[in-house]
Amino acid sequence: xxxxxxxxxxxxxxxxxxxxxxxxxxxxxxxxxxxxxxxxxxxxxxxxxxxxxxxxxxxxxxxxxxxxxxxxxxxxxxxxxxxxxxxxxxxxxxxxxxxxxxxxxxxxxxxxxxxxxxxxxxxxxxxxxxxxxxxxxxxxxxxxxxxxxxxxxxxxxxxxxxxxxxxxxxxxxxxxxxxxxxxxxxxxxxxxxxxxxxxxxxxxxxxxxxxxxxxxxxxxxxxxxxxxxxxxxxxxxxxxxxxxxxxxxxxxxxxxxxxxxxxxxxxxxxxxxxxxxxxxxxxxxxxxxxxxxxxxxxxxxxxxxxxxxxxxxxxxxxxxxxxxxxxxxxxxxxxxxxxxxxxxxxxxxxxxxxxxxxxxxxxxxxxxxxxxxxxxxxxxxxxxxxxxxxxxxxxxxx
Length: 398
Prior knowledge:
There is one protein chain. By secondary structure, the protein is of the alpha/beta class. The chain has 13 helices and 21 strands. The two termini are 26 Å apart.
């Protein structure tokens, strides 16, 4: 538990029978050298008194948003290195998934940008309830880390999934999070995301179905993994830029080419997740084209700049260049050719027609292809989880 030494951890204690196990975890974290601040829900206080956690953490325990220090939740949110919610109940996960902040704990979680480790524990029928699973999925897609419960003897006397995880599993999960927070320390990361729009007239354009979700997830995870700076160059999307990331908004392939090539020399890691249009109208009209009696409209298209190829030619030895290959057939064959032709260090390939993948869904199934011929296929994951796994692989390359 050396990774916990000197870290500021907020323990959110919820109302479940496993509260007594959470007390033991708090004690062990303090012994490992962490500064642990505890927030208890009203239901948690029905199982164990705040005095127990005050004694174990050696700090005042917060229980009431209005009676306790009114700004303490802001201070805790800003200074925490990690939030651990345990035992995370059906109720607290439902609240967080729907943006409800009506007590000290949920308000503090809403204000933090620290990583969140969620440790559910409940009866099997509650854990497998489709409503709970949907809420869990939603939070996972937003970057919450879940430590799955164990299967075994439950408080009701029944056996099944929902048992609070072992001490070893919890500490391993915490250590992994802290280790990840420095994976990209000292690195500068450039990410592209979203589609481009190639205008035909002031209203009509050529574009594609890219949502930008993969690129935005990569930028957010690069920030979370300790990168010194992250720049996100994005085409038009409906997404909010991640907090703490430099954001550059572009529209056309030409604008993205300019933004990326100007910044490229300053970055160590470049992830080209944008779906840049390959073609644009040779002539763009200044007025909206009117529908006429003609049965056809002929457009003359010209190629847009191949940004990735240019970066591959300019790449220096200390730079890692990653491409993305969204394909519909001969997925690995086309991705390997892209890797070779554009002088990439890694290609992330996916079949956009596969169930659970594609531009407009929250999950993805990808295969990582390396210069030395290796490949690794990831299972279906949220795009946030895919981004984290891709960046872990890149950290190994670095």
